[in-house]
Design goal:
Blueprint lengths: L4 H5 L4 H14 L5 E2 L11 H12 L12 H15 L8 E4 L2 H12 L5 E6 L4 H8 L3 E10 L2 E4 L1 H7 L4 E6 L12 H13 L3 E5 L24 E6 L12 E4 L2 H14 L5 H12 L3 H21 L15 E2 L4 H7 L4 H12 L1 E2 L1 E2 L15 E4 L4 H22 L4
Parallel strand pairs: 1-11, 3-4, 3-6, 6-7, 7-8
Antiparallel strand pairs: 2-9, 4-5, 8-9, 10-13, 12-13
The structure holds pyridoxal-5'-phosphate (PLP).
The site of pyridoxal-5'-phosphate has 13 residues, from helix 5.
Length: 405
């Protein structure tokens, strides 16, 4: 049988293949500490679960309009207007079964095959995969690893824009580095987008998980609302990964296209989960805030502990729940070629699951700096035990290979 080339261009997400391997190892009796998956270990707040159950009992179990339940679109419009400082109407909101579907819809609707899409690398893997599926080109924009943390290389970004460019993807707070873009960097990107008439896909799924500094959406900058596709969702801020609930905020013309996309893709997002979404946005927020404060505590703990591991150098992430330590020196000291080998050795020999930079579309090779992603959406006990295992692993590898710090 023949398969469409476009389907073969989609890439599997490494987090899910590591997840599968970890599940098999756990099932066969291994004790694994999981730092590999970007999923809060908290449960969905009770008021949200109750709202979903009440919606089912009230028989809100039929199709909704493809763009979503009107009351939910209104609640999202209010929430985005309030948190981003822009004026959004319900007609600009399109609900999707997860932020990922909103991303898919945005790239399918706004990028022609053959066009260029610029995006930060390391990158959430769905962006390059979807861009490549539609026959467009994902053009990586690297970060600079400075003493103050990771900074998107804006000169490089500017130099990569050509008449063939149609979209810039932003994702701040960033997965996997945890960095935020300062306002002046956003302003420069906005200038470039306006000058070259580009779409900006701004994935703001971690906007509620900011620990230092303020979150600014590029959509709030002058003349940017019209060309920004803002996507966000409930998975991370409300621990609702399995609910599949996200949305896009776009100009009204594009919203009509997105509506047709959703009608064709899945008719609508599950109706009762949308009512749960209304409760999430309009009900008490203390559970979400409690989770954020726990992530903040874990961030401080994980960065302190990672910086105690021989050969690891880790910046303090400003948001999301990922640390992205530089492990170039650790690979050298442990006699490993790269972060891929470190990822495998940590899982097989130390019982710690992490993701190497290559899972985020970063070029990986002995010449480049090496990084791994540690998700600290894990409890403090796991963080202490997991980082102790990494430290012990490094100490024993250094002893074995006779290499010195
Ligand atoms: C940057 C980024 N965008 C989108 C998503 C997917 O979110 P959702 O669960 O709402 O589809 C993730 C999940 O890990 C993510 O890290």
């Amino acid at each position: 049988m023949d398969y469409a080339k476009r389907a073969q261009r989609l890439e599997p997400e490494r987090a899910f293949s590591v997840l599968k391997k970890v599940s098999e190892m756990v099932a066969s009796g291994h004790d694994i500490i999981g730092f590999h998956i970007g999923e809060p270990d908290f449960t969905t707040p009770e008021n949200i679960k109750t709202a979903a159950c009440s919606s089912i009992h009230a028989n809100r179990t039929h199709y909704s309009p493809p763009s979503g339940v009107p009351a939910f679109r209104s609640a999202i419009a209010d929430y985005i207007s309030r948190t981003r400082g822009i004026s959004v109407s319900p007609e600009q909101v399109v609900v999707a079964a997860g932020t990922k579907l909103a991303i898919f819809c945005a790239i399918m609707s706004c990028v022609e095959s053959g066009a260029d899409v610029l995006g930060p690398v390391p990158s959430y893997p769905a962006y390059p995969s979807i861009v490549s599926m539609i026959g467009a080109n994902f053009i990586p924009v690297p970060f600079i690893d400075t003493d103050q943390g990771f900074r998107l290389d804006l000169d490089r970004l500017a130099s990569l824009v050509t008449p063939n460019t149609s979209m810039i993807i932003l994702n701040f707070p960033h997965n996997p580095t945890g960095t935020l873009l300062p306002r002046e960097d956003l302003a420069r990107i906005a200038e470039i987008a306006i000058e070259h008439d580009l779409w900006v896909l701004s994935d703001e799924i971690y906007s509620r998980l900011v620990y230092d500094g303020d979150f600014v959406s590029i959509s709030s900058l002058p003349d940017m609302a019209e060309r920004t596709i803002l996507v966000d969702g409930f998975s991370k801020a409300y621990a609702m990964t399995g609910w599949r609930l996200g949305f896009a905020v776009v100009n009204t013309e594009l919203a009509a296209l997105f509506d047709t996309f959703m009608a064709n893709a899945h008719s609508c997002t599950a109706t009762f989960t949308q009512y749960a979404g209304i409760e999430a946005l309009t009900g008490p927020q203390h559970e979400a805030e409690k989770m954020r404060l726990k992530f903040l505590k874990r961030r401080d703990l994980v960065v302190t502990e990672l910086n105690r591991v021989p050969g690891f150098r880790c910046h303090m992430p400003l948001g999301a729940f990922y640390a992205f330590p530089n492990v170039t020196e650790a690979c050298r000291m442990a006699g490993l070629a790269d972060a891929d080998q470190l990822q495998d050795a940590l899982l097989d020999d130390a019982g710690v699951a992490v993701l190497s930079m290559s899972a985020f579309h970063s070029p990986n090779g002995p010449k480049d700096d090496q990084y791994i992603r540690i998700s600290y959406a894990a409890g403090e006990r796991e963080i202490l035990e997991g980082t102790r295992r990494i430290r012990d692993f490094m100490t024993s590898r250094i002893g074995r290979s006779g290499r010195h710090i």
